[in-house]
Amino acid sequence: MATSKENGSKETATGSAQKNGQPAKRGFAAMDQNQQREIASKGGQAAHQKGTAHEFDSEEARRAGQKGGEAVSRNRAHMADIGRKGGESRQSAQRAAAAAMADKGNRQSSKDT
């Protein structure tokens, strides 16, 4: 492997490397995001026009969602966290509703006097 000492960067027989030690980006990776998005969009449009683009039907989408839910539910700590947050949210909503009812009752009794 030949190295260049003048500028401090390494050059290999296959090409030059960036100064941070990672290989230089080439092709699609070297393009900016807008250009990548534009090219990808054209590919998607062409696939739809050709009729080879994949489209989810409702059954396939249901299976995909079920599969994702099963994967999440394997993490018991995460599921416990979700349940705890839901319980706290419901409990705080009930307390707020009870306080509003009590406040409403106090205002009505003060109007009567």
Description:
- The structure is a single chain.
- With 113 residues, this protein is mainly alpha-helical.
- It has a domain at 60-108.
- It is 63% helix and 4% strand.
- The protein contains three helices and two strands, in the order ββααα.
- It has helices spanning 33-50, 58-73, 76-112, and strands at residues 11-12, 15-16.
- It is elongated, with a radius of gyration of 31 Å.
- The protein starts with 10 loop residues before the first strand and ends with a helix.
- The model is unreliable at 3-14 (pLDDT under 50).
Q: What Rg, in angstroms, do the CA atoms define?
A: 31 Å
Shape summary: elongated
Number of β-strand runs: 2
What gap, in angstroms, lies between the N and C termini? Answer: 96 Å
Mean pLDDT: 79
Low-pLDDT parts are 3-14
Helix and strand run? EEHHH
What helical percentage do the residues reach? 55-70%
Offer a quick outline of the entry.
The protein has a domain at 60-108. The chain has three helices and two strands, in the order E-E-H-H-H. The chain has helices at residues 33-50, 58-73, 76-112; strands spanning 11-12, 15-16.
